[in-house]
Amino acid sequence: MRLIKQLQILGRWLLAIGIGCISLCACAEERLVVLTSYPQEMVSQFEAAFEQAHPQYRLEVIWRQSADTQKLLSEPGSGDVDVYWSPALRNFLQLRKQAQLRQLPPIDGIAESVHGVQIADPDHYFFASEIAGYGMVVNPQTISASGLPLPTDWQDIASPAWAGKVTLPIPSQVGFAPGLYEAILGALGWNDGWRIIHQMAAQAKLATAGSTFVTDDVASGNFAVGLTIDFFAHAAIANGQPLKFVYPHHVGYSPAHIGILQSSRHVAAAEAFVAFVLSDAGQALLFHPDIRKLPVRASAYSQAPAGYFNPFTQSVSTANQTSLETLLRRQALTSAVFDACITRPQATLDSMWQQLRQAEAQQTGASPSLTEARALAEMPLISEREAEDVHLQTVFRARRENPAYEAETAQYEARWNQEIQQRHARVMALIQQKPAQQTEATGKTGQLTSP
Amino acid sequence: MTKWGLFWGACLGLYWQGMPLAVATDASAPAPAYLREAYTQPLPHLSTSELERFYRGRQLVRQSWVIPPSQDSAIAGLGPLYNRNACIACHAKNGRGYAPDGPEESLKTMLVRLSVPGVGMHGGPVAHPLYGDQLNAFGVPGVPGEGEASVHYSTRTVATPLGNIELRQPHIRFVQPAYGALEPLMRETANTGANSGVLTSARIAPPLYGTGLMEAIPISTLQALAKQKKPAGIKGRLNTVWDPENQRMLPGRFGWKANTASLRLQTASALVGDMGITSQVFPTGNCGRLQTACLNTQSSTVELQPAQLDDMVFYQQALAVPPQRNTDDAAVIRGARIFRRAHCAVCHVPELKTGRDVLTPLTNQTIRPYTDLLLHDMGPGLADHRPDFMASGSEWRTPPLWGIGLARIVEPRAGFLHDGRARSILEAIYWHDGEARASRAYVDRLQKQELADLLAFLESL
Hints:
The complex is a heterodimer of chains A (about 450) and B (about 450).
Chain A: H1 2-22, E1 30-36, H2 40-53, E2 57-63, H3 70-74, E3 83-86, H4 89-97, E4 113-114, E5 117-118, E6 127-138, H5 140-145, E7 166-169, H6 177-188, H7 190-201, E8 204-207, H8 214-219, E9 225-229, H9 230-238, E10 244-246, E11 253-260, H10 267-278, H11 280-284, H12 324-328, H13 331-343, H14 346-362, H15 368-378, H16 384-387, H17 390-397, H18 403-440
Parallel strand pairs in A: 1-2, 1-3, 7-8, 7-9
Antiparallel strand pairs in A: 3-11, 4-5, 6-9, 6-10, 6-11
Helix pairs in contact in A: 6-7, 6-13, 13-17, 13-18, 14-15, 14-18, 15-18, 17-18
Chain B: H1 3-7, H2 48-62, E1 81-82, H3 87-90, E2 110-115, E3 138-139, E4 148-160, E5 163-175, E6 188-190, E7 199-204, H4 211-215, H5 219-227, E8 240-243, E9 248-251, H6 263-275, H7 292-297, H8 306-317, H9 330-341, H10 344-347, E10 352-353, E11 366-367, E12 375-377, E13 395-397, H11 407-410, H12 425-430, H13 437-444, H14 448-460
Antiparallel strand pairs in B: 1-3, 2-7, 4-5, 5-6, 8-9, 10-11, 12-13
Helix pairs in contact in B: 2-8, 6-8, 9-14
C-alpha cells in the first residue's frame, strides 16, 4: 500500500519536472561569487549589509585559504569567481601579472598609501580594502603583577626580565606572521632587528598555527605578551578580554585587497560589491566588535568607536616599505631563516641563552669571550646583502612550484642547520671558558684573559 | 581580581563560578563586552588534554569549509549542494539564528526542511523526490543550487499590558526552484494546514551551548517526565527517532522537534545536510536521486575524518551554559514565581539531574535547563503540518531557556521560536497555544508590573 502511494507521489513529481524546467531560466536575482579567506564573522556582516543595500544581487561567498586559491583561479572562467577579496597581496600581484584582473575606475576617498607605504595597485587593478597593523597584545594585569612596565616598542620585551612571558608566532606557519617580522626588521634595521628577534625568541614560546588563540593565551595569564596583528587583539578586547594592544613606534601595516576577475560575467554586480566594501557604510563595518580592522577610507573614522586607532593621524610606518612588492619580496626567505635559526634549534637555543645570560650575570668585569658569544648568538644567519639577493628571494618564494628551487632551498637549509650548530657549539665553548677561569680567580679580580 | 579577569579565568577553570552575577538591569547601559562570548566558554574542570580537544573542535566548528578539490584536504568537502559553509554561519558565536524580515532577505541562519506526505523508513518523514529533505540554496560550480525560499509575513497586532506587539506569521515561497517545481499543486505553501502538497518546515538555528548536558540527562528521567501527570491539560511525550549509525530507534533530544537522538548524529547530519560534507555516519552525501550533476560531482570517499567528527562533538559537549544573572533582583524573584504559577515550569522544567557521562564535568550534575525535552502540541498557529517521526505537525520540543536572556547580546537579530518569527521573548510567549493555552491565559490576566517581572526573570536566564 505504502509503496504504491509513494510511487504515485513520485509520478506526480516527475511530471512536475517537465513543468518546472520551463521556468528554470529567468533568474530573480543576479548571482555574484566572491572568493575570500576572511573568517565567517567578517563575511556574515558584509553579506547581510550588502544584501540589504543591493537586494537585486545574490551574494555567494566561497572560502579558501590564500595559499589554496591560485589553482582555482587559474581554471578557465576562474572557477566562476567574480570578486577576489582577501588579505593575500601575493595572489593579487600574481593575478595582475597574469592579466586576470579588471582595471577599475578610481574611487574617491580611498587611501592608496599610508605614510608613504603604498597599499593599492597604482594602476587600479585592485584596491586596498582595509589595513591591519602589527604589534603586541599584552595582559596589563599579568605585567603589573610581575612588576614590569608596559612595553611600548619591540625592544622592550627583549630583556631577560620577560623570560617565559612572551609568545611569538612562527612565520612559516602562521599566516600573518611573515609581515610581522618584516615590520620589526623594517623598523630596526636588519642587524638590530635580528638581534631583538633572537633575544625575544631566547625566552619565548613559539606558537604554531594551532587551535588556541594568542589572545586566549595572553588573557589567561599564560603569557604576558604576544606578538600579533591588531585585529585579533582588538576583537578579543571588544569581546571583553582583559587585554591591551600596543602599536610600536613604527607600525608595519598589512593591507588586504579587493579586485574583479577579468572573466567575471557579472561585472555590474561585482562593481557594486567593490563599491560597497569601499563605501563609508562598508568601511564602517570594519569597526564591528568581531572584526576591528582599519578602514582605508579616512572619512570612515568619524564613525569609529572611542579610542580606535587611526593610522592616518596616529602613527608613521616603517620607512622602507615603499612599494607593494617590497612588502613581500623577502618574506619567504626571512621565514626560512627564522626556522633555521630559531624554530628548528629551539631546544638547544633555550639552554644556550640561559647559560649565556647566567654567565653574563655572574660576570664581574669585561669578558671578551662572553662579548663574542653574545655577538654570535645575536648575529643574523645571513647578511642583509644576502637577504637582498633576488635569486635567493625567488627560490624561497617559489620553492613549492619549482622542484629545482626546492632542491636549492634544501641545500641552503642543510648548510644553515650546520652553521647554526657550529655557532651554538662555539657560543657554548666561549661560555665554558669563563667559569673555569673565574672559579679559580674566585671572581674577585675580574681579570679574565680572552682566548 | 577584576570581574573581567575572573570571567576570563576560563582557562584556569575559574569560569562562571567567578562570573559577576549582578549585571546592570538598566536597559540604557551597554551590556558588558564579555557577555558577547557567553556561549563560547568551556566547562570548568576540563583537563589540559580535554581543553586541547575543545580547542581543536572549536576550530572545526568555526571553520569555513572548502569546495573540493583543494590542497587543504582536511577542510575540503563542501557541497555539491549546501546552505552555508560553516556551522557558525548559522550558529553565530554558538548562539541562535534569526529569520529574514521579508521576502527580499535570503535565509542566512535558517533552513527549510522538505518532505511529502506519508511515513518513510523507520517512521521518519518521506524526503521530497527531487529536492531531498532540505532545500539547499547553493551548489558547487557545475551543480545548480536548488533555489531559494523566501519568507512572507502576515501580521496581527496584539494588545499586551506592556503595549501593543505585532505577531508575524511566516509563509514560505520558493523562488526559482532549479530542479522543477517543488509544489505542483500549490504555488505557495503557507503553513496553512493543506496536507496535499509538499510539506515544509522553516527552522532557525538553535543555540549550541549546554547540549552536552542535555544529552547527559538519563532516558529514564525523560520517560518519567513524560509519564508524570501534569496540570492544565499539559501532556508531553518523547520523540522516538532513527539512529542510522547503530540502526536502532532512540529517544529524540535535538532539533526543534527533537528529531535527532544525539549530538553526534546532529553534528553529522548538519555536516551532510547543511554543508554537503560526508562522514562515516552519513557516507553518501545529500544529492537527490534525480540530481545527476550533484551525483556526478559527489566525492566517493568520506570527506570528514572520524577524529574531526569526534572533536566537533566534544567541543559542543564541553560548552558551558552561562549562569543566571541578577538572581537577587526583586523583579527577577517575583518573575520566577509567576513563571511557576503560569505553569510555564511544567514544560520548561527548571531543574534536572544528569546521569553518568563519558565526560566527568557532565556527570551527576544538577542543571537548570528549563526544558523537559518532550514534545507538546502548541496549537495551529505554530504548526508546520510536517510530522517528524512521532512529532505531529503541531508538536514541538520544549526548547531550553537557559542563556536565553543573552541571545540578543550575542546576536542582535536573534529570533525566538522554531522559525524565528518572534523578535522578542514577549512575542514568543504570546504565540503559546495548544497545551500551553492555560499558561497563555494566565499571562493574559497579568498586570503590567507582573508581566514585566516575568520578562525580567526570563532575561536573567
